[in-house]
């Protein structure tokens, strides 16, 4: 529980940086003003990479093992790429659901950056988060749950991944994506699996948004669509999402089958010590208290932005 508490506390610090980080960047406000692409880049580096380096220095954790910086075996690559495409219809469906309640502000931000060349657009929107967010979430945060079964670790860290974005319109699909990425990392024992998947997912979104903006194609707000058309779109993507989930389950099982025992972490094995500590309600409450506080900040921050 001590290691879980440590990474959960680290996550709370990241959330606080997301909430109050604007004050840290105030001296550079005039320089960043109007440069959304630069603001996104600086945010990823200052609020994710810098804390990551400090964490590794303070805790003296082994860098390669903690971040799972291990070579991705070529036999896993086709499966990782396959999952990258299968995730997309799931994300679209979950995005449609959240857009019924929250305005899609992500598209607006992307459209304001359409003056960038495509390569720079993809670099900022796809590559940078794939590196910074993966080393943070599937690196440091997931390392704290190494003694927990993959299902539990995937759900918890997937939830934290959604909270870290501090943006309700993105919550559902980032939650789902976070769960899937944990399975890829645990099964391949390489963070490059989740980096590739994350990069391809964001890259597809970035490319579509860039071309749409360049050709003055505006996406329709689902709440303003004709009810019949809206229901048809939701129903269609629900079917596609279900098919994609089935496909991902099949691919995950395939990855597990082509892995040898010493290459992967047992998915359902939980360390005995953890099981004993988990029975202590006080230990468990303290270990997960930072998550509870993070959720409170998330809710308050989201409500404040909505107003």
TrEMBL record:
Ranges of residues in domain CAAX prenyl protease 2/Lysostaphin resistance protein A-like: 118-203
Membrane found in the keyword field: yes
One Gene Ontology MF term: endopeptidase activity
InterPro entries: Rce1/LyrA-like_dom (IPR003675)
Keywords: Membrane, Transmembrane, Transmembrane helix
Domain of life: Bacteria
Spans through the membrane: 7-30, 36-58, 79-102, 114-132, 144-164, 170-185, 192-212, 232-252, 285-303
Name the record gives this protein: CAAX prenyl protease 2/Lysostaphin resistance protein A-like domain-containing protein
Record organism: Clostridium acidisoli DSM 12555
């Amino acid at each position: 529980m001590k290691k879980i508490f440590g990474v959960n506390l680290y996550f709370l610090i990241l959330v606080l940086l997301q909430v109050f980080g604007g004050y840290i960047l105030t001296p550079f406000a005039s320089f960043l003003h109007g440069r959304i692409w630069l603001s996104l880049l600086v945010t990823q580096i200052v609020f994710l990479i810098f804390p990551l380096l400090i964490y590794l220095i303070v805790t003296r954790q082994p860098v390669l093992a903690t971040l799972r910086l291990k070579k991705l075996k070529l036999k896993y690559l086709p499966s990782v790429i396959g999952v990258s495409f299968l995730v997309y219809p799931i994300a679209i469906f979950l995005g449609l659901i959240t857009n019924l309640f929250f305005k899609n502000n992500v598209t607006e931000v992307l459209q304001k950056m359409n003056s960038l060349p495509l390569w720079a657009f993809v670099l900022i929107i796809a590559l940078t988060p794939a590196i910074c967010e993966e080393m943070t979430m599937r690196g440091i945060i997931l390392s704290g749950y190494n003694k927990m079964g993959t299902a539990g670790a995937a759900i918890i860290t997937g939830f934290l991944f959604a909270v870290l974005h501090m943006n309700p319109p993105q919550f559902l699909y980032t939650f789902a994506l976070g769960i899937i990425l944990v399975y890829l990392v645990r099964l391949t024992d390489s963070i490059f699996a989740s980096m590739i998947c994350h990069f391809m997912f964001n890259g597809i979104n970035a490319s579509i948004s860039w071309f749409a903006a360049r050709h003055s194609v505006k996406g329709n707000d689902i709440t303003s669509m004709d009810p019949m058309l809206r229901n048809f779109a939701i129903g269609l993507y629900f079917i596609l999402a279900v098919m994609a989930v089935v496909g991902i389950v099949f691919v995950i099982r395939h990855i597990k089958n082509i892995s040898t025992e010493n290459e992967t972490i047992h998915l359902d094995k939980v360390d005995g010590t953890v099981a004993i500590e988990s029975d202590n309600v006080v230990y468990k409450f303290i270990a997960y208290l930072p998550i509870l506080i993070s959720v409170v900040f998330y809710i308050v921050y989201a409500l404040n932005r909505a107003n």
